[in-house]
Amino acid sequence: MTILLVLAHPNEQSFNYAIADTARRTLEDLDHQVIFRDLYCDGFDPLLWQDEFPTKAPLPPLVEEYCTELAAADGLIIVHPNWWGMPPAIMKGWVDRVFRPGVAYEFLEGDKGEGIPLGLLKAQSALVFNTCNTPAEREQEVFGDPLERLWQVCILDFCGIKDFERRMFGMMVLSDAEQRQGWLDEVARMVARRFPAQE
Amino acid sequence: MTILLVLAHPNEQSFNYAIADTARRTLEDLDHQVIFRDLYCDGFDPLLWQDEFPTKAPLPPLVEEYCTELAAADGLIIVHPNWWGMPPAIMKGWVDRVFRPGVAYEFLEGDKGEGIPLGLLKAQSALVFNTCNTPAEREQEVFGDPLERLWQVCILDFCGIKDFERRMFGMMVLSDAEQRQGWLDEVARMVARRFPAQE
User: Which of B98, B101, B23 is nearest to B68 (CA)?
Assistant: First the structure.
């Protein structure tokens, strides 16, 4: 399988990098092809401008590449910290610019944009890993854990990805090396279970 | 009063611009001082990098200016379209970089980041205006209208702004000039009610 792995964190020493690295190695050990995109490292510009709104708009090369990779992926793994109940701006912009009509979804004929679109992604399965510094109970009860619904319903299901699993690790500031290693082992198990070796 | 009005939309012909313009004129007619920030027009870079994490980190001039304006505002008006249940990336980055520790919130002494921080914003009141192309019922029942909780709880209440009101206009693609004018009249009424002329 070809798995698109997308990471958004500005620090290469961060636990988010360790998650992405663990996911990548696990996939490679299972003989999957991994397309790893580190958005900060790529210098990705997250601003969607008006000229990219039309379905057939010409796109800058990097955005075009990102679109091709997203459309071709058999599975998706997303890694980012929880910043204000949302992904970092750079990953929000990856969604804004890359989850385009004609790539990730399309409106049915005669629909001016008011109807329920058709999800176009070939991938059927996605994993989302997040880190946070909010106690799990407070995240759930006060903030309502917005990332769950944003990724599952607003973005992935909308584009046709029905199988979804997410894990948020925290609280990072209180974790020690042993706990983090346990979390990385969990990442490896989740990745292997979701994307098993093909016969 | 000094009201900070922040807009994120790439098209100056958009209804979002018309909302911001109506809000600005209404505030000026009531003798408020308006600080109007058009993030796309400012060329704002929404990427938060590691070197800006520390509370006392030196900031680029525009970010510093944005922080000063946010801290000094008596009220806040936010205008943006609903893109994937979130603000456009440029406004997500305005939150990432400008709602900083020491500006918008602070952790209590001895708190490494795991506790409940103190909101620092002087503003007590905020209005959020959004546009969308999703039927209201579908937005509520399928997507859960994430913008409501994101702005009210995850961002503004977190930073000390308790009075919150939000209005999402739509569906834009099906609206005509008359309906849009009615919506702008509603914007003007909401702004005048929330930020009345001072004695």
Answer: B98
pLDDT at A108: 86
Q: Hey, of A39, A111, A112, A114, which one would you mutate to test binding to chain B, going by the most B CBs within 10 A of its CB?
A: A114
Per-residue pLDDT tens over the stretch A118-153: 999 999 999 999 999 999 999 999 999 999 999 999
The answer, as to whether pTM is greater than 0.95, is yes
**Fold type of domain B2-194:** Rossmann fold (3.40.50)
Convert chain B into a string of H (helix), E (strand) and C (coil). CEEEEEECCCCCCCHHHHHHHHHHHHHHHCCCEEEEEEHHHHCCCCCCCHHHCCCCCCCCHHHHHHHHHHHHCCEEEEEEECECCECCHHHHHHHHHHCCECCCEECCCCCCCCCCCEECCCCCEEEEEEECCCCHHHHHHHHCCHHHHHHHHHHHHHHCCCEEEEEEECCHHHCCHHHHHHHHHHHHHHHHHHCCCCC
ipTM: 0.97
**Residue B166 pLDDT exceeds 80:** yes
Contact A96 B83 (CB under 8 A): yes
- CA–CA distance, A120 with A73 (Å, rounded to integer): 12
How far does the CA of residue B163 sit from the closest CA of chain A (Å)?
17
